[in-house]
Design goal:
96% of the residues lie in helices and 0% in strands. By secondary structure, the protein is mainly alpha-helical.
């Protein structure tokens, strides 16, 4: 029974590492989207000024 618990703990630790890695990747994607949004806003404002 102890061996089964240890195996489950190992699986849980692996899953936790996967979640941590996914969290980092998602954070990077969110940062990229924020930057793209800022760039789009700047382009829109520039275009609107040039159009007037």
């Amino acid at each position: 029974m102890l061996l089964e618990v240890e195996e489950q703990m190992d699986k849980l630790e692996e899953s936790m590492e996967d979640v941590k890695e996914s969290h980092v990747v998602l954070g990077e994607h969110i940062d990229d989207l924020k930057e793209q949004s800022r760039d789009f806003e700047i382009m829109s404002r520039t275009f609107n000024r040039e159009s007037v």
